[in-house]
Amino acid sequence: MLEWEGKVAYPWFLRVTVTYDPAGNMPDERTNDILNAFEDHLIERLKATDGCLWLAHETCRGTRDIYFACREFRKPSKIMWLIEQEFPYAYDFAFDIFKDKYWRTLQHFMP
């Protein structure tokens, strides 16, 4: 996906950072299940048909970063605002939306 030529059509990045209490470096099984359920909910709400592509997640040191590439920034911003209203205390999360036309944010995933 990182070598995909069509990535310039998705110049906006949405990074959702979920904070959890680590038991060591990685989450325990229960916490991991909660993180996966939240990520699945995000993927369901931020659909490819709406111009958002789920790209990756990274879990370590008490955080999970979930990355989406988006065609534009307005719809993901509205959806994340709604999700904040749905889950005000269930998850400790924050999100950033920024322009990254060449997906340099994900360079640390390259071999």
Structure description:
The chain is α+β, with helices and mostly antiparallel strands and 111 residues long. The chain has two helices and four strands. It has helices at 29-45, 74-86, and strands at residues 12-19, 52-60, 63-70, 92-99. It has a four-stranded antiparallel sheet, covered by helices on one side. Strand 2 and strand 3 form a beta hairpin.
Give the arrangement of secondary structure elements.
Blueprint: E1 12-19, H1 29-45, E2 52-60, E3 63-70, H2 74-86, E4 92-99
Antiparallel strand pairs: 1-3, 1-4, 2-3
Short account of what is shown:
The chain has 111 residues and is an alpha+beta fold. The chain has helices at residues 29-45, 74-86, and strands at 12-19, 52-60, 63-70, 92-99. The protein has 2 helices and 4 strands.
